[in-house]
């Protein structure tokens, strides 16, 4: 047994949070609540930043939070605290109960159905603490920045490197008798550099993120990648306005899936603020494309045996052969819509998009001529209509090869049309998100340039 495992007190801390949750539930019942739920969390973290070889910040955090929600019939009240003194905990439960007594009935309020609670809690390999001190963290950030600054003489400045390491413990319990425990770690290292001089300066960077230290790219690899990306953007041009194929690199392609999730989420649907109302069973994508949710994926960035309502998760397709298979619902939004929860209270877990193409370079060769987008700016997406218009930068592809960098472009379309126009999804997945997709090629979009 190594020193980290020997000194790991996470299970004892989870035991204390679980015992605390039971005391709070008992107190809520004593005050007349018909149902109640409690969320308890503890977080520890270390974050450092450096710039131009000098330390800028060192932050150590140790936070906790207790949230209590009670139901009196279908009236709901919530209160929270970070104070574990008995008087503060008592006051928090009393405040939640007082709020509930004065709220209106909500026919969708209440815990998720008891028979849906998770009963199995497999180890999903999400706990990998990295016990390093501030000096060691600073050394990692400095090594990353130094590698980037030394990689190319055209790198003129640095926006800094940062390192972060955090641990999170949480317990969710409710009056159905459910108690769910989770422990997670996450570590990151990143760098932003500035290439060029004067009005010709360009900024870009790179970062790595993972549950375990072994998941991170090395400081040298991150630094060199950041330098390569910054230098590659020097002397950008614009292109003539027109309609072209648009290839989204993997790190920006996942934003397209984010817009899909927003449109099929319960909150947008019951508020009728989605361009995908009444779309289950409708073909949105090409027949070869499927999207699957895998909450029980070992070592996944967002793996969990239960959602924020305590409902058991399971592998669950979202899109099958291009057809929208379901919405994304927690118990509240499901009741509002007259449907069944999909165990997505709190969001989705580990989406995986099927691929039908190879690497980014192979996709560019297949595209022949068009725009490769590596950065998106602005928030020009209308969730009600699906209209899409965002600032973009990247590279112009000619004869299947990168011809020159481009910026100050706007790409526009409609998300429903864009989804249907997807011609390829690549196999090079960006591992830094729970939305796992390769590059996405949309056959035709409007590109507005300066010519």
UniProtKB/TrEMBL annotation:
Source organism of this protein record: Pseudoxanthomonas suwonensis (strain 11-1)
Annotated family: Belongs to the peptidase U62 family.
GO cellular component: cytosol
GO biological process, one term: proteolysis
Highest taxon listed in the record's lineage: Bacteria
All residue ranges annotated as the Metalloprotease TldD/E C-terminal domain in the record: 241-449
Gene3D superfamilies: PmbA/TldD superfamily
Pfam families on file: PmbA_TldD_1st, PmbA_TldD_2nd, PmbA_TldD_3rd
Protein name per its UniProtKB record: Peptidase U62 modulator of DNA gyrase
UniProt-recorded Gene Ontology molecular function terms: metallopeptidase activity
Residues covered by the Metalloprotease TldD/E N-terminal domain: 36-100
NCBIfam families recorded: PRK11040.1
Domain Metalloprotease TldD/E central: 128-234
């Amino acid at each position: 047994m190594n020193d980290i495992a020997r000194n790991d007190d996470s299970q004892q801390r989870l035991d204390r949070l679980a015992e605390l949750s039971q005391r709070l539930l008992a107190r809520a019942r004593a005050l007349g609540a018909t149902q109640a739920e409690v969320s308890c969390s503890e977080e520890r973290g270390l974050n450092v930043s450096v710039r131009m070889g000098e330390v800028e910040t060192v932050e150590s955090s140790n936070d906790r939070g207790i949230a209590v929600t009670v139901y009196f019939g279908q009236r709901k009240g919530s209160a929270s605290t970070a104070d574990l003194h008995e008087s503060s905990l008592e006051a928090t439960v009393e405040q939640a109960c007082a709020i509930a007594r004065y709220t209106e009935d909500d026919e969708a309020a209440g815990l998720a159905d008891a028979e849906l609670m998770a009963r199995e809690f497999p180890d999903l390999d999400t706990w990998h603490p990295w016990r390093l001190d501030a000096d060691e963290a600073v050394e990692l950030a400095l090594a990353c920045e130094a590698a980037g600054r030394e990689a190319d003489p055209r790198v003129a400045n640095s926006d800094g490197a940062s390192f972060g390491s955090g641990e999170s413990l949480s317990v969710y319990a409710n009056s159905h008798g459910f108690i769910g425990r989770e422990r997670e770690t996450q570590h990151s290292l990143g760098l932003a550099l500035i290439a060029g001089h004067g009005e010709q300066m360009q900024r870009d960077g790179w970062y790595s993120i993972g549950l375990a230290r072994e998941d991170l790219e090395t400081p040298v690899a991150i630094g060199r990648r950041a330098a390569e990306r910054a230098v590659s953007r020097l002397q950008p041009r614009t292109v003539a306005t027109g309609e072209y194929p648009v290839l989204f690199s993997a790190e920006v392609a996942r934003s397209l899936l984010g817009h899909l999730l927003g449109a099929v989420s319960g909150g947008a649907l019951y508020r009728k603020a989605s361009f995908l109302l009444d779309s289950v069973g409708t073909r949105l994508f090409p027949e070869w494309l499927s999207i699957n949710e895998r909450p029980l994926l070992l070592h996944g960035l967002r793996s969990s045996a239960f959602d924020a309502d305590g409902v058991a998760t399971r592998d669950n397709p979202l899109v099958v052969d291009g057809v929208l298979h379901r919405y994304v619902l927690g118990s509240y939004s499901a009741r509002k819509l007259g449907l069944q929860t999909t165990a997505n209270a709190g969001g989705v877990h580990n989406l995986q998009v099927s691929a039908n193409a190879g690497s980014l370079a192979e996709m560019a060769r297949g595209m022949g001529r068009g725009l490769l987008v590596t950065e998106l700016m602005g928030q020009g997406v209308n969730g009600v209509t699906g209209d899409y218009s965002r600032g973009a930068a990247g590279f112009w592809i000619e004869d299947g090869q990168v011809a020159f960098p481009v910026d100050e472009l706007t790409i526009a379309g409609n998300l429903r049309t864009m989804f249907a126009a997807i011609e390829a999804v690549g196999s090079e997945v960006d591992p830094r998100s729970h939305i796992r997709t390769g590059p996405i090629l949309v056959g035709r979009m409007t590109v507005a340039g300066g010519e």
